[in-house]
Design a protein that fits this description.
The protein is mainly alpha-helical and 131 residues long. The protein has a single domain (6-125), classed as Four Helix Bundle (Hemerythrin (Met), subunit A), CATH 1.20.120. The protein contains four helices and no strands. α1 (6-30) runs antiparallel to α2 (35-64), α2 (35-64) packs parallel to α4 (105-125) and α3 runs antiparallel to α4 (105-125). The protein is elongated, with a radius of gyration of 16 Å.
């Protein structure tokens, strides 16, 4: 599969959106007994969904930019995906199990989000011709 294809990233965003909406529904209905856990789960879902939308921006930049600009857009997508898995994933795991076996995953995932946004901005600002 070609990972620098806009279709690839739209597919990843679609799957990620399905997971985010499903997680949000699960958290709302199954975690009613503990407000703190429900809040943490809600943060995980919010970050998950916002970065799912960022994956659509990646697909748009890949479809409309060339050369190194597209390179940075694709890298941003991988960082967003890693951030979703690490940040939101670690919060989901904590909320569902009550344990956080790798506490560093949450801040590292947050760093991945920040780096991804930087790469996305760099990709958008690069002075290249549009396709």
């Amino acid at each position: 599969m070609i990972t620098n294809s806009p279709r690839f990233w739209i597919g990843i965003a679609g799957i990620s959106g399905i997971v985010a909406v499903s997680a949000g529904a699960y958290g709302y209905h199954a975690l009613k007994d503990d407000a703190a856990i429900q809040d943490a789960f809600g943060i995980a879902v919010q970050y998950h969904m916002w970065h799912t939308l960022a994956l659509f921006a990646v697909s748009w930049l890949l479809a409309n930019r060339e050369d190194r600009s597209a390179y940075w857009a694709e890298r941003a997508g991988w960082f967003f995906l890693a951030g979703i898995l690490m940040f939101s994933g670690s919060l989901y795991a904590y909320c569902l199990t009550g344990e956080n076996p790798t506490p560093a995953m949450t801040p590292i995932g947050g760093g991945m989000f920040i780096a991804g946004w930087g790469m996305l901005a760099w990709s958008a600002m690069r002075n290249t011709s549009s396709r």
